[in-house]
Amino acid sequence: MDSWSALLRVVAVTDGDAGGNPPVTLRPDPRHRMPGRGAWMHPTPDCFELAVRRKAFGRALRLQAAVDVSAVARHLGVQHE
């Protein structure tokens, strides 16, 4: 828990051209302006790794499919597999 100005908002984005089951990619939203449901996290590598390990992004964004977190990892400067 923290003030919204200290947190990074993350949103799920799907590629509409991918057909029946498009892949879900997480994108950082540092300006808090992107449409859709957002998940909030501290912009630190530790918080990111904990959220990935606990699969918190999927729960917070109400997603059933696996998500690609590479864009958020790049934004935070984290090496992620």
UniProtKB/TrEMBL annotation:
Pfam entry (one): YlxR
Segments forming domain YlxR: 5-66
Protein name (Swiss-Prot/TrEMBL): YlxR domain-containing protein
Source organism of this protein record: Terrabacter tumescens
Location of the region described as Disordered in the Swiss-Prot/TrEMBL record: 15-40
Origin: domain of life: Bacteria
